[in-house]
Write a structure and sequence with these properties.
Elements lengths: L2 H20 L16 H31 L4 H12 L10 H31 L4 H13 L1 H17 L1
Helix pairs in contact: 1-2, 1-4, 1-5, 2-4, 2-6, 5-6
């Protein structure tokens, strides 16, 4: 897996984790994303993503452990979650015990997500970037070819240096 692909995965995870705290700040998908970030902001964004990756990985492991501690496999947890989001729990064919385990796991996962989110936000601000700017760049990376090109170019240059 190339460094660019790893960063893309981390960017997606960053946005998922940050979504819980920045929902009010996020722009609806219909709006145009900002893409006029300075080279300095782009570099800072990439550097911060590298620093928060271990926090995200640790958080993911904690969430998976919380789910298995409740006697659910992660895949089964996801099936039940998907059914609940569709408001069709019957499609998951979950027993009462599974639903009870699922509910306990959800509470644990939400607490872990909040903890990880707080750590990530602290790291972002400690590095001198506003949460909103970080989120905007992440969204722009997913939606703007201009921002994708800037970030991918920076990553390619960094790979050449290593």
């Amino acid at each position: 897996m190339t460094y660019s692909n790893i960063l893309k995965s981390l960017l997606s995870l960053s946005l998922i984790v940050l979504a819980f705290a920045t929902t009010a700040q996020q722009m609806p998908p219909q709006q145009q994303v900002r893409d006029d970030f300075s080279d300095n902001e782009i570099k800072q964004f990439v550097d911060i993503n590298k620093k928060i990756a271990p926090l995200q990985e640790a958080g993911t492991q904690k969430m998976m452990s919380a789910i298995t501690e409740e006697k659910l496999e992660v895949q089964r947890f996801n099936q039940i979650m998907e059914a609940m989001q569709k408001q069709d729990l019957e499609s998951a064919k979950a027993s009462q015990d599974e639903v009870a385990s699922f509910n306990k796991a959800v509470q644990k996962v939400q607490a872990i997500q909040q903890e990880v989110n707080n750590e990530i936000q602290e790291k972002i601000t400690d590095e001198g970037m506003k949460i909103q700017t970080f989120t905007e760049i992440g969204m722009a990376y997913q939606q703007s070819p201009k921002v994708q090109e800037k970030i991918n170019k920076l990553l390619a240059e960094e790979n050449e240096d290593n």
